[in-house]
Design brief:
The structure is a homodimer.
Chain A lengths: L1 E6 L7 H12 L5 E7 L1 H10 L8 E5 L12 H4 L4 H10 L5 E4 L3 H12 L9 E7 L6 E5 L9 H19 L5 E5 L10 H12 L4 E6 L11 E3 L2 H26 L3 H9 L1 H11 L6 E5 L5 E4 L5 H16 L2 H8 L4
Parallel strand pairs in A: 1-2, 1-4, 2-3, 4-11, 6-9, 7-8, 7-9
Antiparallel strand pairs in A: 5-6, 5-10, 10-11
């Protein structure tokens, strides 16, 4: 039985959506138990409403404090009984195989650092979401998506190594191709960071390094892994999200202005469904904090059920494929 | 009569497209003369094919050398008679009011630096393209889009000042709103660069500074001007371009798989035309090098006629609105 702790208190919308998402996900995962970490009364009131819940598939770990979206990173030290803190402690104490939270990113990063620490050799863990690509069934692992403001070339090199292990173990990619985000594809482009990372990545023959990739190529599925610093990564990812959302919204709004277009949109329903399925960010709403000494995931706090279920799936896949042990081995730790 | 020098040799596709674009643009601009800078024989052979060309609206400045896309920045010093070099010299010698090129970016930046120099107080000119937004008729000026790898907070502050002058003079915006690209909107987010730039921008009450903007908001038309460093700017812009292109391509490809969807697309033709018109990057294919001591524009080398015409329009608008003099005044130079 795999065990995952779910901090259900951090999400913007309260624990209801989080608990419902977990119950939805559990339906088809008979080898999984979820530990709901949070306010017992609130969690139980959601559970009471649900039928067909297998009581052997969940536990409640009752906590009395919450670090909300406006909380500070120091709350991790101040609020000993916060759901986020307790969920991380369950990972540390090996009571669970992994955890996820929809809560405060800063507190999550600080909590992971203080409670779990990092894998030896890693100084700055990175957020690694996946995003869908134009190639059917292919996702790209992208990091750092914003856990850090600054990264060193060594960080980027370590990200490539950890993500390669993850890609092999969890996604089953045999020889994951690695790209380095830059403003051009020719050698010599970019800042010292990119040039130094290029050297490290080229020197390690165990990596399938493909060179620089421009952000306009990111979604084409040209590589399995894209590494960059947390600042650029956050800028690139949000630009993609914003553009995709705005384009689809604009198409919808323009359709509504004309009867003929509405008829057309009806006939094109299958197309939009397909495109949405392909590029839906809600199906990629979570990110592992890679480099942390534990399997810990951050989900968007504004998630709906689809978003939380996608993060639960990623956490489950990482746990089931024993990715932490494999990453430790890759980093030379037995 | 306004005079603009057009380096027609730099483009990937040869001078034909460039000359044809200029003739197309000249049709409705009777107060403009274009100086074609490049190989006389090639230019004349394109001109011969065209009817209805008013010979008082163009001149040819014959050159014997070319700096192509693979040229180095040192070619600016080595190739004295390169079309790019001559076009920049025409600006310096006040033979023309401005110039544009579809050529090599690196050589263009080096040439502008050596031949024109910068406005006093400016150390790193920036590429400033415009991009369309969700707000009908509103474009956002965006800089630096990649002229530099690194920028200081002072650069970003100067960009805000120059772009504000440009927005007022060329776009007629009364009080242009300025945003600073960052990974979050709260004060304290980002690197030292963003924090220091925030201070400078907040302190100058002549600017209409609106604070940090995330890249997912860029296309919403939330501000008139977005400033950032050249590395992040390039990443953000290309991510937007790539996403927009890929989404529309995917919709098209998915439509082609089904007869019903094809019928739907036919009925939705007006919608796609409208969306394409709104977000067509080809209508925004040029960028002024702002901070250079002259009105100089870079157009994509891979442009078609639509792309070059859009850059010609921007150059013409900048020249006609005397933007260099206004920027000099803003920077305290009479």
């Amino acid at each position: 039985m795999y065990k995952i702790a779910f901090d259900v208190m951090g999400s913007d919308l309260g624990p209801k959506i989080a608990v419902e998402s977990a119950l939805e996900f559990l339906k088809n995962k008979k080898d999984l138990m979820i530990v709901f970490v949070g306010d017992k009364t609130q969690i139980e009131s959601v559970l009471k409403e649900e039928k067909n819940v297998d009581p052997s598939q969940y536990e409640i770990f009752s906590t009395t404090e919450v670090i909300d979206m406006h909380g500070s990173i120091f709350d991790v030290k101040r609020k000993k009984d916060a759901s986020l803190v307790r969920a991380l402690e369950l990972v540390k104490d090996k009571q669970v195989h992994g955890m996820l939270t929809g809560g405060n990113s800063g507190a999550f990063l600080a909590g992971s650092h203080f409670i779990l620490g990092e894998l030896p050799g890693i100084t700055r863990p990175g957020f690694m979401p996946t995003f869908p690509t134009a190639v059917e069934g292919k996702v790209t692992l992208f990091l750092d998506a914003g856990a850090n403001n600054d990264n060193s070339a060594e960080d980027l090199y370590n990200y490539a190594k950890l993500a390669t292990t993850y890609s092999k173990a969890v996604l089953g990619v045999k020889s994951p191709e690695v790209g380095l985000l830059n403003v051009g594809t020719e050698e010599g482009k970019g800042k010292d960071l990119q040039k130094d990372a290029w050297k490290l990545l080229t020197a390690d023959k165990s990596l399938n390094y493909k060179g620089y990739i421009e952000s306009r190529e990111m979604l084409t599925g040209v590589v399995d892994i894209m590494v960059t610093d947390g600042f650029s990564g956050n800028i690139a990812l949000k630009a993609m999200e914003g553009t995709s959302k705005l384009l689809l919204t604009t198409i919808k709004a323009t359709v509504m202005k004309s009867f003929v277009a509405k008829m057309g949109a009806l006939l094109m329903r299958g197309v939009f469904k397909e495109v949405k399925r392909k590029f839906d960010y809600k199906d990629h709403a979570g990110a592992i904090l890679i480099g942390a000494n534990g399997i810990v995931f951050k989900s968007h706090g504004s998630n709906d059920i689809q978003g939380f279920v996608s993060t639960l799936r990623m956490t489950y896949d990482a746990v089931k494929n024993d990715v932490l042990v494999k990453m430790k081995k890759e980093m030379g730790i037995q």
